[in-house]
Amino acid sequence: MIHIYTGKGKGKTTAALGLALRAAGAGFKVYICQFLKGRDYCELKSLKKIKCIKVEQFGTKCFVGKSPTAKDKHLAQQGLAAAEKAIRNKTYNMVVLDEINVALRFRLLELGQVMRLLEKVPANVELVLTGRSAPAELFKLADLVSEVREVKHYFKKGIKARKGIEF
To answer: What is the extent of the structural domain holding 49?
Structure first.
């Protein structure tokens, strides 16, 4: 099954991590590939304690700005290769491609590459894609698409990202 969590609201990665946690509780092996992320987010500390979850990051310490660099593109390509390997080797029951939609939006990956990957997903693997601006073309290949919509957010009051909540 292919899941997509997209939209402008907060909670896409959180939803995917919740699903990964549930899968781990059922004894599934989970691989989480984080695109565009290279910092030590708080969730990583928790995930390291769960033996059946492996997390790899393919990004710099600074999230991609308006002009991605060649290094950003190289890291995204490495992430896609790692995700393909995780799917192909059939070790994992769930593969999470965190922020892959944003990597597509910044053209760090080509849509065709990701669509070919989705077409190769074996029936016994749950594949989860997160990030804003998921291309409509991916919706056709997905079995579940959830759009997280912002109704209200405290950022608009000037409240900055908080440790343990946003990162």
So the answer is: 2-11+18-139
- What CATH number did the domain enclosing 89 receive? 3.40.50.300
| pTM more than 0.85 | yes
Q: Which tokens belong to 114?
A: 């990701």
Across the chain, which has 167 residues, the per-10-residue mean pLDDT values are: 97 97 98 94 93 96 78 96 95 97 96 96 96 97 96 90 87
Is residue 160, in this structure, part of any structural domain at all?
no
**DSSP track, 84-147:** HHHHHTT--SEEEEETHHHHHHTTSS-HHHHHHHHHT--TT-EEEEE-SS--HHHHHH-SEEEE
